[in-house]
Amino acid sequence: LAQAILGQAGSRLARTQIRQRTLRALYTMGKAGQARQVFRSYGKNSKVKKVSGTEKSKPKISKLKQGLVPGSVLILLAGRFRGRRAVFLKQLESGLLLVTGPYAVNGVPLRRVNQRMCIATSAKTDLKGAKYDVTDAYFKKDGVAKKSKKDEMFAAGQETTAMSTEKKVGQKSMDEPVVKGMESDMKAYLKARFSLSAKMYPHDLKF
Q1: Alpha carbon 69 to chain centroid distance?
Q2: Which of 20, 144, 153, 196 could form a disulfide with 200 if both were Cys (CB 3.0 to 4.6 A apart)?
Q3: Per-residue pLDDT for 29 more than 60?
């Protein structure tokens, strides 16, 4: 009897040991291969460190193209006025370029342009000390309430995005000294659209 009781106790111990080993093996296996699965619990008092990569950093202002100075004439390559020429005024805090037609000459208003989307030419005009006190906030759109799809369908063609009277007056007053001091040849050059004809290759042209 004593030997039978001892044998049963030994078998029980062996079973418990086998169970513990299998549980350990399953715990260390994890989901992907032999990688150990780690579970972390965050309590109220525990502090989580922020990763430096998640913190937003201020965008760096890109350098201007070589030879690009206030008064340089640019050729716009994208947007509503692509193919038009405009005068470069200054670089804004966002890194975009502030340009003007001027509006009285070729109809191009004050605009922000990415310097990747324009060609800098060797032509330059004198700004005559004109002051353009314009920032990125000047181009922010006023908050307009969202309309339903039905209202948009009926209102299509009725609303037009035009310049406000204040901006028109400001544009005229800022462009006035530049337009007055501009020669007729320069005005004609700014009015003309840029286009390529047959056997004209951009890499062979000198702007």
Answers
A1: 23
A2: 196
A3: no
